[in-house]
Write the structure tokens for this entry.
Amino acid sequence: MHENWKFHHVAVVVRDMEKSIKFYETLGIGPFPPLIGPSGAALTGKTVRGEPMDYQIDLRHAESGVGDLKFELIEPLEGETPVKEFLDQKGEGIHHIGFTVDDIDQETARMAEKGFAAFQTGVSPSAKWAYYATDKVGGVIIELIELT
């Protein structure tokens, strides 16, 4: 991990957002207000494997996770995405670990030097982000996020 990375969240892919929210809230994790998706802000600049892509996801962060741990739920809705592929192939579970960075372009260049290309990118009203296929060992993807 690069010294500029700061732990941000753990993301879990789910099949049913409302059912999952109710479950996690019974554990004291939440609340999960709308963030990105049909009832939240739209994503722009979406790419998958270097190609522009149009898809819909419901993505929510727990306002108060567990201690300092932020918790994110993602439900794929429409279109083919790596998140939907994950759900189809592996089922629900931990998809990625997110880290904030000061400069995503600089960190993307560093990741490329290490042999990791961004396979999914996007922009939200509050962040630019990219996923990297680091799941060959441990089964977990890394997400880098530049908060704007």
